[in-house]
Design a protein that fits this description.
Strand content: 35-45%
CATH class: Alpha Beta
Number of helices: 2
CATH topology: Thiol Ester Dehydrase, Chain A
Radius of gyration: 14 Å
Shape: globular
Number of domains: 1
Structural class: alpha+beta
């Protein structure tokens, strides 16, 4: 298990860049198996100005994207997938359990369940202070 990847190391694995890189650090990594990452929701995030004025809330679709980027670290950190892109193949059973606001820190976890060739599935969660904010099953396809 490898731990503590910073922004630069994450960018060496993922193709995402500011303002769309939605994880700040990886705290646990088992390539091809499991990953835990963190995202601090700062008051100056680009999406909060319009979502919603006077009541800023992190959009659910961006929480799902952060979960997917977390899972992509587990997939793309494997040697055979280095330099590739993992695309969404499906998003199933997503549920949102609490609002995510500026100042919150998301703890994102993805456990890969099944990988067959370039296609795989993972169960992902997003928590704030140990309480579930969102969960879902994500299907991905790694470009060949």
């Amino acid at each position: 298990m490898r731990t503590a990847l910073g922004r630069e190391e994450i960018e060496a694995i993922l193709p995402h860049r500011d303002p769309f890189l939605l994880i700040d650090e990886v705290v646990e990594l088992e390539p091809g198996e499991r990953v835990v990452a963190r995202k601090k929701v700062r008051p100056d995030e680009w999406y909060l100005k319009g979502h919603f004025p006077g009541r800023p809330v992190m959009p659910g679709v961006l929480i799902v994207e952060a979960m997917a980027q977390t899972g992509a670290v587990a997939v793309l950190s494997e040697e055979e997938n280095r330099g590739k892109i993992a695309f969404f193949g499906g998003i199933d059973d997503v549920r949102f359990k609490r609002i995510v606001e500026p100042g919150d820190e998301l703890e994102l976890e993805c456990r890969l369940e099944r990988v067959r060739g370039p296609i795989g599935k993972g169960k992902a969660t997003a928590k704030v202070d140990g309480k579930l904010a969102a969960r879902g099953t994500l299907t991905f396809a790694v470009e060949r």
